[in-house]
Specification:
The chain is mainly alpha-helical. The protein has helices at 7-30, 37-59, 63-82, 89-114. It folds into 2 domains: 1-61; 62-120. The chain is 77% helix and 0% strand. Helix 1 packs antiparallel against helix 4 and helix 2 (37-59) runs antiparallel to helix 3. The mean pLDDT is 88. This is VIT1/CCC1 family predicted Fe2+/Mn2+ transporter. The chain crosses the membrane at residues 12-35, 41-62, 67-86, 92-112. InterPro entries: SPW.
Length: 121
C-alpha cells in the first residue's frame, strides 16, 4: 500500500490515467486514423485496458495495477514502431503522449510506494 502518497494523490493519478486511457481510446476517430488497422485497434484495446485498470485502482489500490499500467504505458510508447504505424503521425503522437503520461504516473506511484520519506508517525 502507498505510505507516503496520500489517498487524494493516488486518486488524482488514477483519474489522469482514466482520462489518458479514454483519450487514447477515442483518438482514432478524433484524429482520423480509424482506417489504419494496427494503429486504431491498438489505441482501442490499450486505451480501454488503461482506463479499466485505473478504475480498478480507484476502487481498491493494489500495486499490481500500477505495474500493469506501467507495462501498458510503455507498450503504447513503443507500439508505433513495433506495429509499423510510426508514419501515421497522429496515431504515433497519440500513443507516445498517452503512453508517457500513463507510464510516468504508474512509475511514480510505484516509486512512492517503496521510497517513503522518514517520519515519526
Amino acid at each position: 500500500m502507498l505510505k507516503s502518497l496520500s489517498s487524494n494523490h493516488r486518486t488524482a493519478f488514477d483519474i489522469v490515467n482514466i482520462v489518458a486511457g479514454l483519450g487514447l481510446l477515442i483518438t482514432p476517430w478524433l484524429f482520423g486514423f480509424a482506417a489504419e488497422t494496427y494503429a486504431a485497434w491498438n489505441a482501442w484495446i490499450v486505451g480501454a485496458a488503461i482506463a479499466v485498470v485505473a478504475v480498478a485502482a480507484l476502487y481498491a489500490f493494489y500495486e499490481a495495477e500500477e505495474w500493469i499500467n506501467l507495462v501498458l504505458g510503455i507498450w503504447a510508447v513503443v507500439a508505433p514502431w513495433v506495429l509499423g504505424f510510426s508514419a501515421v503521425t497522429a496515431a504515433m503522437w497519440a500513443h507516445v503522449i498517452a503512453g508517457l503520461v500513463v507510464a510516468l504516473l504508474a512509475a511514480g506511484s510505484i516509486w512512492f510506494s517503496h521510497n517513503h520519506p522518514l517520519s515519526t508517525v
